[in-house]
Structure formats: structure tokens, C-alpha cells
Amino acid sequence: MGALKHTRIWSSQKGAELVEFALAFPLLLLVCLGIIDMGLLLQQHEVLTNAAREGARVSVLPDYGAADVEARVQQYLLGTGLTPATVTTTVGAPAPMAVAPGMCVTVVPVSVSYNHEYIFLGGIATYFGSSLGTKTLTATASMRSETAAAACP
Fold first, then answer.
1. What would the pLDDT profile of 29-56 be if each residue is shown by its tens digit?
2. Hey, which residues does 100 pair with through a beta bridge?
3. Which of 57, 103, 119, 147 is deepest in the core (most CB within 10 A)?
């Protein structure tokens, strides 16, 4: 009779759901926080892409220089949640681009970079002796100048 009672206690299903939840919840939480972190990374990359486009647009206008491009990129970033002081803007040298045989326009590339820090995954990785560190996001855009096409150099 004692052996039968002992078997009933071990075969009981009471609390099994709680144990399964305790095992599965940390993994589910890790996946959800990873999705949030990657979503923020993609959002910041999109903001940088748009800022580079804004800078490239200003760079090809007549009578505008590199300082004007950087100011426009900073102005665009003010409303996006990224700290403009942590963003690096690089204005490339104007380069010719062929648009037709013997005809060229001037193209000015603008690069914008930002160091993204993982909010959730970076902190979680430190518990396992690892570090995700920072990811440098870079976006480059170029536009053709507003001047008429000329003969290629």
C-alpha cells in the first residue's frame, strides 16, 4: 500500500504548467526583447538613410557647401530621437557621372554614420560573459547636381 501511495504522488500533474512556464518564459522573453532591439536598429538605419538623402539633396544645390550639408543633416536628426552630436557626416568630393555618351553630371556622395547600442540584448549578453558592444550603422546617398550636363572630363 505504501508503494502505491508513493507512485500517486509522483504521477500527479499538479504544477506541471508552472514548471513548463518557468522553463519557457526566459526564452520567450529573450526572443521578444531581441525583436524589439532589432526593430530599433532598423528604425535608426532608416533615419540615417533619410538624413543622408537630405544632406545629398543640399550638397548638389548651387552655392551650398559641406557646412550647409552637415547643418541640414543635424536639423533632420533633431526630430528623430537620435542625438545629432553622436552622428558623423561625411561629404564626399564631387565626381562626374556619365548620363549619355560624352555627357556627364556632377554627383556628390554624403555618408552618415551612427554607433547603435543594443538596449536589451547588450545587457543580457553581459550575464553570459559576452558583449554585443556597438554596431556602426552607415548610410550613403548621392544625387546629381542641379547644373546642366556637360562634356565628360
1. 989 998 999 999 999 999 999 999 999 9
2. 103
3. 57
